[in-house]
Amino acid sequence: MKHSLLVAFAFCMILAGSFLAPRAAFSQSTQAITGWAWSDTIGWISLNCSDLGTCSTVSYGLSMNGSGVISGYAWSENVGWISAQTADVTGCPSAPCTPQVSGSSVTGWLKVLSSSDPQNGAWDGWVSLDGVSYGLSAVGNAILDWAWGDTNLGWIDFSANYPCEQTYGYYCTDDTLHYKDLSCGIDTIAGTPQVCSYQCQSGACVPAPDPGGTITATPSLLVRGTTATITWSTDDAVSCTVSGNGDAWSGLSGSQTSSPVTATVTYTLSCTGLDDSTLEESVTIRAVPFWREL
Questions:
Q1: CA separation (Å) from 155 to 3, 98, 124, 134, 274?
Q2: DSSP strand E in 174-293: where?
Q3: Where are the alpha helices (DSSP H) in the chain?
Q4: Beta-strand (E) ranges in 84-164?
């Protein structure tokens, strides 16, 4: 179903490009705002053509310059172009009109261009980015929370958990890996994020793998009062601890000498995975007394 939706949407985008185009280009040197927003009344709003790889046929997108001013166009297959261009948002219901990121705040308006068509009646097409008890906010390179677009658009969610469990305006791009950074709640693109919960590739998302790991003791049967070597290794884990016999170590892998073993003891490897899943593996060491001739 999700794949069909994306294919249908991509087709609509390409078809629309043959007879619709943004009124003006925006600077490609500015920082692109990619991903999706969601409205219960009109569905998905694409923030950038790169999300579906259609830029070679239909080029559009929102972007932000060094001063935080947002420009460009988003696209809805149901209402058409949604503009952040200064010329289009001039005359908004209340100042400031130009959409802009300042610190953690996002102010201004967007405009649905099709609202000016005569057949659309009295609909004004304005989308408010901030208001009483609501508004978008900026954290790092993520745009979060809610905008309001009157009864025709309703609430527009920029941090909805759609699709593929991704949040904060980022989405899977073909041949590009996107990650959700659980340590700060912001999606980061590729590279080496601190924590990954979901990995997207070729437009599809898969759950993060559960952590795996092994722990061994050498020897596992020893003379009472002697020591063993505890060795462990893990995959797809964020943090791990090893504890037992009064010892405690941390790390995704390691090798440590145990305290003297005087009885049967258990060492336990405990790990947390990329999406907070857990792992526990244990190894038991048995001690035998010294042999003594009578």
A1: 25, 20, 16, 10, 32
A2: 178-181, 186-189, 198-201, 204-207, 212-218, 221-223, 229-235, 237-244, 247-250, 254-257, 265-273, 278-288
A3: 2-17, 86-89, 150-153
A4: 100-102, 105-107, 109-112, 126-128, 130-131, 134-139, 142-148, 155-157
Q: Which amino acid is it at 132?
A: V
Task: Look up residue 121 and give its two tokens.
Answer: 């009646």
User: What pLDDT was estimated at residue 175?
Assistant: 37
112: which 2 tokens? 């649905």
Encoded tokens for 120: 């659309």
**What span, in angstroms and rounded, lies between the C-alpha atoms of 14 and 53?**
10
pTM of whole model > 0.85?
no
Cα separation of 169 and 37, whole Å? 7
Which residue type does 165 have? E
42-84 per-position pLDDT tens digit = 888 888 887 677 888 989 998 888 888 999 999 998 999 999 9
Instruction: List Cβ neighbours of 93 (8 Å cut-off, separation of 6 or more).
Output: 109, 124, 126, 128
Closest CA to 22 of 82, 111, 110: 82
Question: Phi then psi for 89, rounded to 5 degrees?
Answer: -95, -5
